[in-house]
TrEMBL record:
<dbReference type="InterPro" id="IPR006657">
    <property type="entry name" value="MoPterin_dinucl-bd_dom"/>
</dbReference>
<dbReference type="Pfam" id="PF01568">
    <property type="entry name" value="Molydop_binding"/>
</dbReference>
<keyword id="KW-0479">Metal-binding</keyword>
<feature type="domain" description="Molybdopterin oxidoreductase">
    <location>
        <begin position="121"/>
        <end position="495"/>
    </location>
</feature>
<feature type="domain" description="Molybdopterin dinucleotide-binding">
    <location>
        <begin position="650"/>
        <end position="707"/>
    </location>
</feature>
<dbReference type="InterPro" id="IPR006656">
    <property type="entry name" value="Mopterin_OxRdtase"/>
</dbReference>
<keyword id="KW-0004">4Fe-4S</keyword>
<dbReference type="InterPro" id="IPR050123">
    <property type="entry name" value="Prok_molybdopt-oxidoreductase"/>
</dbReference>
<keyword id="KW-0411">Iron-sulfur</keyword>
<keyword id="KW-0408">Iron</keyword>
<comment type="similarity">
    <text>Belongs to the prokaryotic molybdopterin-containing oxidoreductase family.</text>
</comment>
<dbReference type="InterPro" id="IPR037951">
    <property type="entry name" value="MopB_CT_YdeP"/>
</dbReference>
<dbReference type="InterPro" id="IPR010046">
    <property type="entry name" value="Mopterin_OxRdtse_a_bac"/>
</dbReference>
<keyword id="KW-0500">Molybdenum</keyword>
<dbReference type="InterPro" id="IPR041953">
    <property type="entry name" value="YdeP_MopB"/>
</dbReference>
<protein>
    <submittedName>
        <fullName>FdhF/YdeP family oxidoreductase</fullName>
    </submittedName>
</protein>
<keyword id="KW-0560">Oxidoreductase</keyword>
Length: 770
């Protein structure tokens, strides 16, 4: 195996479909990760990189936000998809000024995200001048000057939008929000708006903090774990080791998912001999093949059955002591939930009464229940209410703030949670802004800013004309591709701080900049020497990450250095923030973080402990609930679910096993049996026939949506291959980002404003073109 040149663009005509797998990981996982790593990095770099992944003196995996097990790091704490994430970043392929001279922006715009990402790491700052056809090199100083000039001429700071993706370190995120607030706006959309915003909204109302309440040991000690709307085999593979341990300790695991995901069925741990040679471990004891958007009904139905069980054996099911002491709103909840219509629950979920009753019995029997969830719950119109109902069920049983029990929203990007802790939020609370102002002698704006959807609307309508992104791929990740592309093209100025080429570089404002940055794996040397950064995982553990690899170009700058360089140019030498000192020594940033962010006291010392430290979480630590009632709140929500209109399907958009969000690693969704292509739609075999098609047919997908003003809108994508698959009747699945053009911008979750990516009403038509 040797380093290979990037492959050509996707040829969907070579797509193949085989049977889906019934297990995850195993030997193929190891082989695939090594193949991908060698292809990008060659042998030497592969070895030095993969052995430092998630080690105490190594770097945090840029894959997912699943925590390392404290004190138990294995010699190779990585998984197939972590290895792919690292290979993508540590690649030796480069995108140089010569590359940009050869490829016009029009040429690049004709390629897929896959091809763009395959080209390698960007090596130089580049600029596209108004009317230009090619990106050209530009010096860092000239780039900062251009941006600062533009920002100074805007009519108002609120005409600028600053996006953040979730790989940005705590130090860079803290300085980035400081720059943005010093400049004068809270327009800070982030990837979280499309991701776990619904979890945050629901949890802040329910328990006073938008983060999960469990740690890895809680999962290992739990009796019962519900995994709802999550595909850990692909997206959080290291979670399978934790689930395996929980099973060995006697836990029961229930998977709640429209699809029989391989990782939820059986796991062959590639780091254990029985995992390599044997049958592996059956992960889920029960599989509830729920209809898309049926989870709110499920949790309401379970709530009702809990009350019935308590009637049958009074005082044994409802945790009265917990409810009386710690909760508010119980009586209203009880009244509402006792009236839930079980027949409607069965229709909404597609489950049998027996499944519902068996799950309720499991909840009754369990002394420690954890509910885990991800995008299958958060990306629905009624996502916030759905999560609130899951919390209701836990509260009835007193399952928050004790070992082995609690809420576990499983985060996506490796530092998306940390970025929020550091202030990346368009509506950061007053106590944070006040502390920031005191620390730095600035006056932060108080008016809430734009989130992702509102930022797109503002750019579309000309209320914002400057867009800067700290990482991510805004154009491909956001909904309603046509609308978003038009919004960005409507901007005067766009800036992308990036490691790799992506669509957001070729859908741009009149002037466009690409600022190439160091990634997690890269060695970061500043005035005071080698620097480290810190990150927070899904369970509020904060720890250090040290890149070790020699950067592929001497022109790359760290995200911290880019923020400081821009700030110096924008604010001049008199500014109260010591941008120069921060750039030279990240310990000084951490000292400020310690004074501004509660729970980060003595940050520099505690983050250097071998496993870092855990941020406070009042419900977890002391059953304290800092909500408006001072208690944990039961929520009352009218039941919502997603019926399938006749002749249509409800489509969810999800990740294949071979991608990281908009970064396409390869074209094989091994677990679902798809190889060499991505444009497939998974449908129930009987729906295929009923809709008048056959296995293998090519179809266009047309989404239908009735806007609030009554207009019926249609959006279309072309040439998707029909794949019969195990899914509830009337429900379908296809990959993101290819299907983002189908998601209407205004189709969002109540309260969280998260695009509804998991329930799109779609009509199938014989393909117009491939
Ligand atoms: N390798 C890899 N790792 C990743 C990512 C990646 O792209 N690649 N992305 C990262 C990010 S940012 C995130 S947010 C996470 C995403 O992690 P996931 O949430 O696991 O990602 P999705 O692929 O969107 O999968 C959604 C899952 O929910 C199920 N689902 C869909 N709708 C419903 C529903 O209505 N009810 C229920 N019960 N289930 C439903 C789907 O069948 C699928 O199994 O992963 C992170 N880790
Ligand atoms: N239809 C549909 N849409 C969705 C979703 C869905 O399930 N369905 N999921 C949503 C979710 S959960 C999320 S989180 C968003 C993801 O949205 P984003 O976070 O915006 O997208 P990514 O694809 O993760 O961003 C990849 C790019 O980040 C850059 N990058 C990588 N590492 C670094 C780094 O260290 N520093 C910097 N500066 N740049 C870096 C690279 O240039 C790469 O091209 O998409 C959302 N969109
Ligand atoms: Mo995400």
């Amino acid at each position: 195996m040797t380093r290979r040149a990037p492959v050509d663009d996707i040829d969907e005509s070579t797509l193949e479909v085989a049977a889906a797998k019934d297990h995850a990981a195993g030997v193929p996982a190891v082989l695939v990760s090594l193949q991908r790593a060698y292809a990008q990095m060659g042998a030497v770099r592969t070895l030095s990189t993969l052995t430092r992944l998630n080690q105490r003196h190594g770097f945090d995996c840029p894959g997912c936000a699943w925590p390392e097990t404290p004190g138990h790091r294995k010699p190779a704490e990585f998984c197939e998809n972590g290895a792919k994430a690292v290979a993508e970043e540590a690649t030796l392929r480069t995108v140089t000024p010569e590359f940009f001279a050869q490829h016009s922006v029009d040429d690049l715009a004709g390629r897929t995200d896959y091809w763009l990402g395959q080209q390698g790491r960007i090596t130089h700052p580049m600029v596209l001048r108004p009317g230009g056809s090619h990106y050209e090199p530009i010096s860092w100083d000239a780039a900062f000057e251009l941006i600062a000039d533009e920002l100074r001429t805007l009519p108002s700071p609120d005409d600028a939008v600053f996006y953040t993706s979730g790989r940005t370190s705590n130090e860079a995120a803290f300085l980035y929000q400081l720059l943005i607030r010093s400049y004068g706006t809270n327009n800070m959309p982030d990837c979280s708006n499309m991701c776990h915003e619904s979890s945050g909204s629901a949890l802040i109302d329910a328990i006073g903090i938008g983060k999960g309440s469990v740690s890895v040991p809680d999962l290992e000690q739990a009796d019962l774990i519900l995994v709802a709307g999550q595909n850990p085999g692909t997206n959080h593979p290291r979670m399978l080791s934790t689930l395996e341990k929980a099973k060995n300790n006697g836990a029961k695991i229930i998977a709640i998912n429209p699809l029989p995901e391989a990782g939820l069925r059986r796991f062959k741990d590639p780091q254990k001999i029985h995992g390599v040679l044997g049958h592996g471990v059956d992960i889920a004891d029960e599989f509830l093949q729920i209809r898309l958007g049926g989870d709110m009904a499920l949790f309401q139905g379970l709530g009702r059955l809990l009350f019935e069980a308590d009637d049958a054996a009074p005082g044994t099911v409802v945790d009265r002591a917990f409810v009386d002491r710690y909760c508010a709103g119980f009586d209203d909840y009880e009244r509402h939930i006792r009236a839930v219509d079980l027949d409607e629950v069965l229709e909404a979920t597609g489950l049998t009464e027996q499944q519902l009753r068996a799950t309720a019995a499991d909840l009754v029997a369990s002394r420690g229940t954890v509910i885990c969830w991800a995008m299958g719950l958060t990306q629905h119109t009624h996502a916030v209410a759905t999560i609130a109902e899951a919390v209701n069920v836990l509260l009835v049983r007193g399952m928050i703030g004790k070992p082995g029990a609690g809420v576990c929203p499983v985060r996506g990007h490796s530092n998306v949670q940390g970025d929020r802790t550091m202030g990346i939020w368009e509506k950061m609370p007053e106590w944070f802004l006040a502390a920031l102002d005191t620390e730095f002698g600035i006056t932060s704006p108080r008016r809430h800013g734009y989130d992702t959807v509102d930022a797109i609307r503002a750019m579309r309508d000309g209320r914002a004309s400057f867009f800067m992104a700290m990482g991510g791929n805004f154009v491909s990740a956001t909904p309603d591709t046509a609308a978003t592309e038009a919004a960005l093209r409507n901007c005067a100025f766009t800036v992308q701080v990036s490691t790799k080429l992506n669509r957001s570089h070729v859908v741009h404002g009149r002037t466009a900049l690409i600022l190439p940055t160091l990634g997690r794996t890269d060695l970061d040397v500043q005035a005071s020497g080698k620097q480290m950064v810190s990150v927070e995982d899904s369970m509020s553990m904060v720890h250090l990450s040290r890149g070790r690899l020699h950067p592929v170009s001497e022109h790359l700058r760290s995200e911290v250095a880019i923020v400081c360089g821009l700030a110096r140019e924008l604010f001049g030498p008199e500014h109260p923030v010591r941008w120069n000192a921060f750039e030279g020594n990240y310990d000084l940033i951490r000292d400020s973080i310690a004074r501004v962010v509660p729970g980060c006291e003595d940050y520099n010392t505690r983050v250097r402990r071998p496993d870092g430290f855990q941020l406070p979480h009042p419900p977890r630590d002391a059953r304290e609930f800092t909500t408006h009632t001072g208690k944990a709140n039961f929520a009352v929500n009218p039941l919502e679910w997603v019926p399938t209109p006749p002749g249509r399907v409800i489509l969810q958009t999800l990740r294949s096993h071979d991608q990281y969000n908009t970064t396409i690693y390869g074209l094989d969704d091994r677990y679902r049996g798809v190889s060499n292509g991505r444009k497939v739609i998974f449908l129930h075999p009987e729906d295929v026939v009923e809709l008048g098609f056959a296995d293998g047919d090519l179809v266009d997908l047309v989404s239908e949506w009735t806007a609030p003003d009554g207009t019926v809108e249609e959006r279309r994508v072309h040439g998707f291959r029909i794949v019969p698959y195990s899914t509830p009747r009337g429900n379908a699945a296809a990959y993101y980002p290819e299907t983002n053009p189908l998601v209407p911008l205004d189709h969002v979750a109540a309260k969280s404003n998260t695009p509804v990516s998991k329930a799109i009403t779609v009509r199938l038509e014989k393909a117009g073109r491939a």
